[in-house]
């Protein structure tokens, strides 16, 4: 299993590497903010709760207002700490209800990439794209490779690509992924403008 380098911060990355719930939570937070900020979030939450790891049972049962306040403390865990606090709690409540609070149970005994994708898509806050990226992350970085995992991950499962967090092994690959994302944004904007011009 690789050491993860998503937060680009040693303590936060160490937590991601050893804690399946931290990695899942980082993936949940990874939207509308820089990726390193998102993946530092689990470490920040754990530290503010006075622990060295996240506990799904504890987070699921936490007072919602108090949990939102915890994520809102400066520096905030996310640009939208209130709504993301709710999402993190929903994710932990789902894990408690369906997997006994054990995040790794989501992928531990799956027989196929298709089954794993289905399980990930069922998680609160995980749409199709996020589920595929996380599936690629599991396969490429954490050695979770059920049959057909690359196909289930779609383009994110491709060998040697720089499309997502699943492809990050250090600062150089982080830059490559960032450049790819900017290129995709540019292409989408150009396509939108071209569509508007054709009317």
TrEMBL record:
Coiled coil: none annotated. GO terms for molecular function: catalytic activity. This is Fe-S cluster assembly protein HesB. It comes from Streptomyces albireticuli. GO terms for biological process: DNA repair. It comes from the Bacteria. NCBIfam families: HhH-GPD-type base excision DNA repair protein.
